[in-house]
Amino acid sequence: MKKIIIAIDGYSACGKSTTAKVCAEKLGYIYIDTGAMYRATTLYFKNHLIDLTNPKAVAKGLENIQISFHKNHKTGTIETHLNGLNVEDEIRKMDISNRVSEVSSLAAVRRQMVALQQKMGKKKGIVMDGRDIGTVVYPKAELKIFMHADEYVRATRRQQELLAKKQVVDLDDIIANLKKRDFLDSNRAEGPLKKAEDAYMLDTTYMMLDEQVEYVVNLATSKILDSMKIEAEMADLDRLSI
Ligand code: DC
Description:
Elements: E1 5-10, H1 16-27, E2 30-33, H2 34-47, H3 55-63, E3 67-71, E4 78-82, E5 85-86, H4 94-97, H5 100-104, H6 107-120, E6 126-130, H7 133-137, E7 143-148, H8 151-164, H9 171-187, E8 200-203, H10 209-241
Parallel strand pairs: 1-6, 1-7, 2-6, 7-8
Antiparallel strand pairs: 3-4, 4-5
The site of 2'-deoxycytidine-5'-monophosphate has 14 residues, from helix 2, helix 5 and helix 9.
């Protein structure tokens, strides 16, 4: 079966990762959480006291960062590793959420992450979620989705996710963090969050996870069939021109 690239972009906490993960499972694709890559970089910079205003220090820090994803076979979840250490829980903490937009606005950081993300998708068959996947990382992705949802609904969902990880965070703090990140992510010079012209808009405010997944998988199936048709037509044209 022909494999495609599915790019899911959108605002913070509107269900991109959960939807992308389940869609990848259903399609037998690889799921890549690019937000986790920026979060892991933020953790490294924080732990190594990297001065974000010093380009040399940032470049040196980036040289020492190795990010990889590993499946936890006990829980079935995918975990982010930074230089060989499992940092999955640590990168989801509010402290990192409060710093990540600043780190991810740095051009050098974006260059390195985008190059890595493009390498990861070379063989297609991926679902990648983030902010600039359909616009910068894979502008030619066969399927692009842009997700958004009501701010209060997003904050409540994020609060529940954190609670499941035993982190109790005030709703107002979460709303403030989402607002700040959305603003910084949408207004940075490099790879700002914006809808690609050819992306499908998906408002998840009143949607359940199953419905979101069904929407994306249905679109993916029709895009896969489209690309198979195009390939078959090209092969026919090749045969005719011999
Ligand atoms: O998806 P997330 O909320 O875990 O992402 C964390 C931050 O990383 C987000 O506020 C902006 C940044 N990010 C980015 O700049 N580009 C991406 N492709 C993914 C995330």
